[in-house]
Amino acid sequence: MKRWTKQMTRIAGLITVGALVVACGAGGRPSSGTSSGGGAAQVGITKDTVTIGATFPLTGVAAPGYSEIPTGAQAYFDYVNANGGVNGRKIKYLVRDDGYNPTTTSEVTNELVLKDQVFAMLGALGTPTHSAVVDFLNSEKVPDLFVSSGSIQWGDDPKAKPYTFGWQPDYEIEGKIIGQWVAKNMPDAKVGLFLQDDDLGVDSEKGVRRYIDKQIVKVAKYTAGNTDVAPQIAALKASGADLVLGFNVPSYTALSQLVALKLSYKPKWFYANIGADPELIGNLLSKFSEGAVGKANPLDGVLTTVYIPGVDATDNAWVQLWQKVWDKYGKNGHLTNYRIYGMSEAYAFVQALQAAGKNPTREGIVAAVEKMGGAAGPPLAPFRYSADSHLGISGMRVVQLKGLVAKPLTPVLVTDIGDAPIKEDDSAATDSPPASGIPEVKPAG
Amino acid sequence: MSRVAFGSLIGHLRRTPLRRNLIGGLIGLVVVILVLESVSPFRQGQFATMAYLGIAVGGLTVLTGLNGQLSLGHGALMAVGAYTAALMLHDVDKPLPLPVVMLLSVLVTVVVGAVVGVAAARLHGPYIAGATLALAVAMPGIASFFGDTLGGEQGLSVSTPEAPGWFADAVYFLTAHDVTGTKYLAYVGWIGLIISFVLLANLSASRVGRTWRAVRDDEVAAEIAGINVGRARVMAFVVSAACAGLAGGVMAMVVRIAAPSGFPLTLSLSLLTAVVLGGLGSLFGALMGAALLTFLPQTITGLGQSLGLSDLQSAQLAPLVYGLTLVLVILLAPAGLVGTIRNAWRRRQSPDAVPVHPQQEAMQ
Lengths: 445, 364
Known about the structure:
heterodimer, A: alpha/beta, Rossmann fold, 2 domains, 5-stranded parallel sheet, 13 helices, B: 16 helices, disordered C terminus
């Protein structure tokens, strides 16, 4: 009994002390506002560095392919830094793994913004993952540049998300361009749609139906994560579809090809750009089939689209630049389309940073990107950035794969979401990089 | 008031578990306020994460440690809570008050937990694990199937609720700091954690807790003693589900989204590893486990990067170190971190005492 009393006295003491410490608070708000004055140094920018962050799936199911994007961007930033950086500032590029899990994305983005104090985010990947942080980034006023996802939500409402910018052609305009091409060139085809059941499938279907609503005989949707697509492919086969448009991620291109092989279903295949990297598909196919399907020419004859020249375009000046950069600054492996994708984002970021002037601010870089519409860069079509739209690249061309090489079937086709017509516009496709390989953009405005 | 009288008052308070636990809760609250007010916003975010993991692990450790049921489906129950909260906080102009949202998350999860619990009560050992595992596997599919209401693959975004005026004023009154969104969530999480831990500790010290332990140790004996074994098991499962629901509700707000990819099977498994790390049946151990789950990966990744490893290598280092920690704890401290320390303490007090096996450990 005595010991208890003693112990409890101690506890009571602790509480009292704790309460006292806590009570050293304000006791009430001062009546007038005490907002701290502005003019503070910009977050993430010092005299000789600019720190930016990115989240990518480096591990887990989404890692194949996507994990190569930041290695490409890093190689290009190393190249720029070795040549003096941007206005004397070296770019520090912090990459965090989110394993394609929005919970982790949220945690690591907190870390990048609150602990590492990045100036901006660049190319953060994934629709569900980035949805988890887009409001946070905008409320913290962190420029959220070039989100690596084709969802419309990154750019269609700049008033709600003033700091976020999309990158690749959104799924809706890709659907429109593919739909129009099919209506023109294969008007008698019975079309089946193979869709991922999220923005990718929904937006693409909306675009496709603008042109070939009547030609569609079957829509089969799969859920990412469920690797059994036999029911969907069987349903497409049963419907008699002789042209299948696949709006899916790479692993499902491989799965659909395997299942079709098993069911001896041989329609014409047309995969959206996101799911049609022949090298990755080859590797996945040979892995999924445990070697039964060879790596060689897995997608021979398949139709797809291209918006940034890929590794197969060896005579393209941009690809030659990327090859030079990768040979010098790349770590492991060889140049791939995913690395080119990362390098292109990095190139556009350097352009934006230059346009933001000698002393870039977060607001300044957002304003600069809004004026980047006509900037010369690796994409085949111009950006759509303006005060009213933060959507990215405006178009693409339809190609057919011959082995690993993409043969163009159309000029570059550009359009916008909604009713915007599809026009031919090769203006951006003929850009070539400056001799130094580093953009030379004058400060905007 | 004289010192003696004060001491005896405290002594009186200590005599019932409810009062003892309430005092513990109050101490906890003071510590939480002190910690949250002195750390950076980034750490506040991590503490919010630790809070929701702690609530879920606490619920699971009671289920497994006290009642002997092994659930691999607690991640799915968290998803139920998270989706309930998300549905109420998704694109609404005037959201319900937060306590109401949390309460509804708990209630909906309790209903789901009761259904699963009734099924689980008929099963034993690995079969319960199997049945709950099926739940964890099925949950993402349900979210996709009802894509129109649950947002499908990309989930429902959650707008972070703002701290109500009275709460912000109260915190300002005590600490002279304003309440930011992250800090508010951390407070919500930790208040939820303290409330649920006080209730759990109380329950475990009560008749109900004794019943659960009796069922865990020997079903036949428990039945002969007049205990309704089935009811006790369902009860335990429901209580545990309620915790998972609350955890899910807090999680939805902290993560700002409820999406199927946020509730992989590994979530359920890592909750279980946290139980093992901390010590089966110990609430304090649950807190330790949740702390390891929250802080270890980020610390290790940061360490890897400062050692000059590539981003990919540092990302792979975290699960490796976590796995090794788990193996080491199981090998060297099979009663978990807290359990082992407690056993060592008891041995020092009375050297002849038999070390307490985790299965027989009573909850403190």
